[in-house]
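Bug: token stream looks shifted between consecutive jobs. Job 1:
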Amino acid sequence: MNDASNPVPLIELGEVRKTYNAGLPSEAEVLHGIDLRVMPGEFIALIGPSGSGKSTLLSIIGLLERMSTGRYRLQGEEVQSLDDNSLTLRRRHALGFVFQFHHLLPAFTALENVTMPALMAEGRVSAVQLAKARELLDAVGLARAMNKRPSELSGGMQQRVAIARALVMEPPLVLADEPTGNLDTASSDEVFVQLRRMHAERGVSFVVVTHDPRLAARCDRLVELVDGRIARDEPIVHP
């Protein structure tokens, strides 16, 4: 049994490396021995210049891409040797995703989009999951937009639907890749406020990739990648 004062990391990476085109003249290693822990309740900004490996690292953490070498524990379980089906199951129940482009299905309502992960995971949407989806849309301020399609929503509203969708399976960790990168300043602030609210009210951990220094400064921990290595990992002190 885990001691509450010594919680198991949600994510634990050790010496993670990623090489593309291994053995070919175009071989390139983009991650060079990454060590990273994400603890329950953290809100982390992942920053760095273009090409530093942020998206690759997030894809590996999200079980969307396999590392070349290294160790990866997800909620204490070694996952690097799991087969694809096992990885899919772990991803569905342990991780939520918010991307720069919301990837909402245009033919479906906001409510239907939020319930989509449950439908994909179990082949049906239970009454409990439907109620959860409604509650999440209400929590992100979209109670009156549940039956609207994405084309009827602003960009910021669409991203708030994506946040609700990421949380419907109640994952302990949400990975957000430039979630405000396609929005104007006001909409970016609106979406970020919702991320912080979900963190505060629900205890969900977040790793947020962002190029926006304003948003990074409002996180609780800063991890900076430079040329595939962690150049900085430090808490952010808020006044």
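Job 2, same session, no restart:
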Amino acid sequence: MRHRRADRAGGEATGSSDHRGDLTMPNALLTINAGSSSIKFALFEHGATAQRLIARGSIEGIGEVPRFIARAPDGTTLDRYQWKPSAAMDHEALLEPLLAWLTSHLGEKALVAVGHRVVHGGRVFHRPVRVDQAVLAELEKLVPLAPLHQPHNLAAIKAVSSLRPHLLQVACFDTAFHHDMPSVATRMALPRVYTASGVRRYGFHGISYEYLIGQLRKLAPTLAKGRVIMAHLGNGASLCAMRDGRSIDTTMGFTALDGLMMGTRCGQLDPGALLYLQQTYRLSAPAAEHMLYHESGLLGVSGISNDMRTLLASDDPRAGEAIELFVYRIVKEIGALTSALGGLDALVFSAGIGEHAAPIRQAVCEGLAWFGVECKVDANHRHETLISTSRSAVRVFVIATDEEAMIAAHTARVMRDLSPQPAAA
């Protein structure tokens, strides 16, 4: 990483359209999840029928001191690098060395496509699409609906377009999985003129939920057809109620601020409280937005950290209050979604907190004991896949999510759809 930089002229030939149609050739797909301070990536070998992970990693500390790390599928470190503290590098400047590093590790393979996580697809985009200028222009219009994520998702797309203009790019949307929720679950109690303009509940974390229901179908196919609540609990957190693998309702709504309390986001909030804060404390719209997205949630309540690991290790009573509220909101929303489903057959924990914080899972299950949920303590602390007892009225699972694998699968499908079909005999 530290010795290689991308050559724009030479790089454009890499991943040229010559390779797109040959699905028998072992090529490579790249997935990118670009945020405000990080770029997460995964590289997959792409064959005729499957994708195999080659490497995954991230560039963290964008805007401060960028740090690169790449790991093999078994977790061993392949490479790491840290830029100088004075390096003011945007997404394009950082993607250039990343693409060069990836190219150097492909061997005889060619990078043929890049799949991107794009948080908001609005009403128009409800399945993965090939990105062109028209698509990009429509996605720009959705930036006000996801100001924390969308600009950085699109910045990565633009950077790849500049660095590798002939490379196929595919946008995969977090909102797409929820697109067909019942209208009563998407409607907001506002004047119809606003609803007609697209003010509705969209839902997020859809790429993760799509992957998780696929995994549950493998583990427990009968349960996957029933009434399931998925809990994607990370720095961003939401729940999704599913029936027969389809989204029925979810806790996030018009934006990714809604629903559960999160790392730095408030979750559900009385709109009157926001009006009061703006009027009493003279908060401008940008100041209010910053407070709701960056200063609230676990960080705001605890005054200590947005990291659940730090809070669980702390003896400060404020940390305990933040954890208590986090769990309370989850239990409360599970109750509401269970009502929407008409019962519950399975509960699935996932994402950073859901997969690794056994005390949080235990507390949530205890909060649902009235419903017959019973957690098997030793299995929970060993992070086993099934953590409910045989007596539990609801089966409780811990399933690791893999949004990168889902994005790679969608990107491969778009490639197949775009490939010339053989002529009929």
